[in-house]
Specification:
Elements (H helix, E strand, L loop, with lengths): L1 H10 L11 H4 L4 H24 L1
Length: 55
């Protein structure tokens, strides 16, 4: 998540100059920050299920 955040925040128009948490993340309105962990969790579950089905 950290590397993804670094790449996204670099190009975000709301990113803070000092690299700290921006106001969008502080207000919990940053879509990647809110939903990316859920997406990554879903991907991991699918990968685990596929690996289990191969055995």
């Amino acid at each position: 998540m950290g590397r993804v955040r670094q790449r996204l925040c670099l190009t975000c128009k709301n990113s803070s100059v000092d690299g700290e948490k921006c106001w969008v993340r502080d207000c919990l309105d940053c879509a990647p920050d809110r939903y990316l962990p859920l997406v990554l969790e879903a991907i991991e579950k699918v990968q685990s299920a596929l690996a289990a089905s191969k055995n």
